[in-house]
Design goal:
Radius of gyration: 16 Å
Order of helices and strands: EEHHEEEHEHEEH
Largest sheet: 8 strands, mixed
Helix content: 25-40%
Shape: globular
Strand order of the largest sheet: 1-2-3-4-5-6-8-7
Number of strands: 8
Strand content: 25-35%
Amino acid sequence: MSTTAPALGTFSVRPLDPIADAELLHGWVTHPKAAFWMMQDARLQDVEREYMAIAAAEHHDAFIGLHNGEPAFLMERYDPQHVELVGLYEPEPGDVGMHFLVAPTDTPVHGFTRAVITAVMRELFADPATRRVVVEPDVANKAVHALNEAVGFVPGREIQKPEKKALLSFCTREQFEAAVGADR
């Protein structure tokens, strides 16, 4: 599925290839702007290993996001009943977990990251089984909290994960459509 953002172009996703995409991802996840991704000191082999594990996982998928056909972001989709949030909240039928990371750039484009998260959410909600998207960003990541709110997420509560204190937030299909309806 692809979506078009006015003045920004077309966004789509393709399955991530853990070997072929490892070098590209390594540059993204170790960049200072990706500090909340918690892979700052990762070696290329660490990135390959991490994404090979995701590729082999039954309840976790990774995708390379494309902007006008060129790699521009990373998207992960997971089942919170089995991955990331097990025992930290009570999942509902149709819950889907999500992570996204925009590639670093020296020439930021106003509205680009919001267009990316909107495209990610459209991709997730393209599956009729998805009723609600769940995210768990670091409580200190104020920029992503604002982006999440812009596309309809509502904070639930803070939770303690092994690696971070996180803000558990939720977005239903209806909340998303209400928030971005004017973005069409």
